[in-house]
């Protein structure tokens, strides 16, 4: 059996590999299989991060029409858009699929409950057999990646991480002597053995965890998932962070010489001008204080994701003029020396992403109320998600 590994985040001409593709090399090595070049392979194992990358698969099919294209990776939790360009999509973790393919052949592997085959209608489940014995993997940023947990306990209504996967964690963290360690976790604060981690390791923390524990992360750059531009929106998202808590935490981190990065999300259908005005007030309050570090505010546009309670809400573009007005206000104030602002996606770009994730037309997305074709996946919290969506 000849298998080629392809990372869709890199052009075929380079054949470079990220963390997911590096895992596949390790997994296949346990069966004594050394990956080959695509030209000589029977199977093309493609790791894919986002369903918007479907044109990459289309090119692969044109270049290698006689190869079986097997897709996995984080994009597998929204497989409808990538399904037509692959032999199958392995939803969730792929250990069972690889073992069955090697031991019993493709037909047996394709019949597994976590395998999406285009044109079928049978229910599909998300496999959650993450190999916690996976050794640390070197990332292309020079950091050693150590996997700590999967999923999220918080269950924010917009985020697929907490709804598509049940929370799981490593029984014991892998050890590594590198000075550049990144712990892979949605929120390190949820890890039950966080006290055993390298204090200089990098990772993501929730605002709530840092405030509750009163900790001062060792990393120089602290990333905070703030999401909504106002308290009201964050409350609707099931991510209640008050402006006072956010303000006090940011100042404390800055005074310790750290750069703080807010990851914020715009484009929710219930967003209003008052919410953006509240963000202005927060920035003016923050700017009046002198501090050592800086604040970066990075925006992304909300994209409905399958498995989440908010995915059936209608797609509206009224966020864009509000953001443009906010951006003009921000730069005219001359604050960019202490606060950095990163733009968010335009409505047309966001629409294309939403269509790829949900497998729906523009009309269907604008109307809302449609779970889309990915709903034949039996996501682990599906019943709860539908109940919450009714209330929203």
Record field, number of beta strands: 16
Strand content: 15-25%
What is the CATH C-level name of the largest domain? Alpha Beta
Given helix and strand content, the structural type is alpha/beta
The residue fraction in helices comes out at 25-40%
Shape: globular
Strand line-up of the largest beta sheet: 1-2-3-4-5
The overall pLDDT average reads 90
How does the major sheet shape up? 5 strands, mixed
Description:
- The chain has 392 residues and is α/β, with parallel strands linked by helices.
- It is 31% helix and 16% strand.
- A five-stranded mixed beta sheet has the order 1-2-3-4-5, sandwiched between helices.
- Strand 1, helix 1 (19-29) and strand 2 form a beta-alpha-beta unit.
- Helix 9 (273-287) packs parallel to helix 10 (319-332).
Tag the structure with descriptive keywords.
392 residues, alpha/beta, Rossmann fold, Transcription Regulator spoIIAA, 2 domains, five-stranded mixed β-sheet, four-stranded parallel β-sheet, 16 strands
Summarize the structure.
By secondary structure, the chain is an alpha/beta fold.
SSE blueprint and pairings:
Elements: E1 3-7, H1 19-29, E2 43-47, H2 54-63, E3 68-72, E4 88-90, H3 95-104, H4 106-110, E5 115-116, E6 124-125, E7 137-138, E8 144-147, E9 149-150, H5 161-164, E10 168-169, E11 181-184, H6 207-213, E12 221-227, H7 231-236, H8 243-255, E13 259-266, H9 273-287, E14 295-301, H10 319-332, E15 339-342, H11 347-358, H12 362-367, E16 377-378, H13 382-391
């Amino acid at each position: 059996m000849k298998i080629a590994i392809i990372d869709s985040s890199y052009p075929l001409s380079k054949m470079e590999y990220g963390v997911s593709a590096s895992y596949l090399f390790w997994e296949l090595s346990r069966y004594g299989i050394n990956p080959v070049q695509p030209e000589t392979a029977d199977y093309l194992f493609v790791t894919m991060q986002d369903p918007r990358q479907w044109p990459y698969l289309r090119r692969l099919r044109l270049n290698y029409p006689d190869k079986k294209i097997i897709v996995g990776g984080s994009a597998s939790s929204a497989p409808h858009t990538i399904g037509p360009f692959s032999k199958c999509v392995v939803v969730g973790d792929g250990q069972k699929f690889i073992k069955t393919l090697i031991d019993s052949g493709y037909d047996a592997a394709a019949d597994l409950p976590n395998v999406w085959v285009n044109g079928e209608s049978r229910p599909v489940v998300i496999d959650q057999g993450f190999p916690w014995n996976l050794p640390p993997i070197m990332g292309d940023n020079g950091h050693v990646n150590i996997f700590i947990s999967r999923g999220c306990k918080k269950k924010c209504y917009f985020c697929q991480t907490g709804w598509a996967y049940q929370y799981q964690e490593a029984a014991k963290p892998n050890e590594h002597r590198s000075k550049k360690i990144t712990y892979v976790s949605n929120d390190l604060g949820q890890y039950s053995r966080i006290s055993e981690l390298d204090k200089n390791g990098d990772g993501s923390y929730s605002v709530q965890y840092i405030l509750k524990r009163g900790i001062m992360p060792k990393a120089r750059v602290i990333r905070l998932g703030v999401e909504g531009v106002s308290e009201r929106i964050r409350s609707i998202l099931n991510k209640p962070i008050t402006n006072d808590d956010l303000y006090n935490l940011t100042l404390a981190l800055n005074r310790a010489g750290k750069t703080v990065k807010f990851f914020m999300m715009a484009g929710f259908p219930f967003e209003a001008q008052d919410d953006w005005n509240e963000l202005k007030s927060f920035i003016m309050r923050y700017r009046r204080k002198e501090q050592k570090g800086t604040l970066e505010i990075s925006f992304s546009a909300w994209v409905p994701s399958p498995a989440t309670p908010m995915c059936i809400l209608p797609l509206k573009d009224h966020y864009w003029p509000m953001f443009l007005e906010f951006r003009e206000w921000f730069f005219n104030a001359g604050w960019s020396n202490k606060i950095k602002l990163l733009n968010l996606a335009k409505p047309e770009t966001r629409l294309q992403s939403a269509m790829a994730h949900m497998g729906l037309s523009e009309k269907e997305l604008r109307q809302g109320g449609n779970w889309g074709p990915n709903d034949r996946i039996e996501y682990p919290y599906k019943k709860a998600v539908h109940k919450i969506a009714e209330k929203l």
